[in-house]
Amino acid sequence: MIKRTLPARRSNIVTEPISPLGIALKNARVSKQLPQRVIAEALAEKCGGEPTNVRVSQFELSRKLPTDAELTVMAQVLGLSVQTLRQKREASREHREARGKEIYERQIAKGHKTRLQPVAAKKPATVAPKKPTPVKQAPVLALAELVEQIDEIAPMPADKDARRRWFTCVSELSRIGAAS
Predict the structure, then answer these.
(1) Residue 88 exposed, middle or buried by CB count within 10 Å (0-12, 13-18, 19+)
(2) Residue 82: CB partners within 8 Å, gap ≥ 6?
(3) Closest CA to 101 of 122, 117, 88, 115
(4) Per-residue pLDDT tens over the stretch 36-93
(5) 4: left (phi over 0), alpha (psi -120 to 50) or beta
(6) Of 36, 85, 124, 178, whose CB is crowded by the most CB atoms within 10 A?
(7) Distance CA 32, CA 41 (A)
(8) High-pLDDT (> 90) share of the chain, %
(9) Residue 103 belongs to what H/E stretch?
């Protein structure tokens, strides 16, 4: 019997905050000795959703950026300035973009990905035009028949001006049908 070993586990798990907002949130929470659950319950009460600490964890680990409402609630619970947290959120957004570019470059260097090339304008191909396929034409209805059919779908209005516009539309449809 051949004994097989499992491949080594790969992990992309981030266990510590890496963005300015995540670091600020975690440091404030730890210094106040608050569990994530307390912040999660405040968020659920004010912003809706389930009171799970996953939400707070995602903010701290920079997997998700909080909305203005969530930011305001966390600022109140942690005793921080909303303006400061907004600035840190914007810095975290820039940090996230830079981190994504860094990871992308690393994947290219390892050969896991290829660099995306800018799409160049394509030259029109010189292909012989296709022969048009014959289209079966529906029989052209007489104007009176068309008026009856459209009147069933959209009844003729009682107002004189509206009726004139309605009949103009029907006449135009009849003309288009006769031309095709």
Answers:
(1) buried
(2) 71, 72, 75
(3) 115
(4) 899 999 989 888 888 888 888 888 888 888 888 888 888 999 998 888 988 998 988 8
(5) beta
(6) 85
(7) 16
(8) 8
(9) helix 82-110
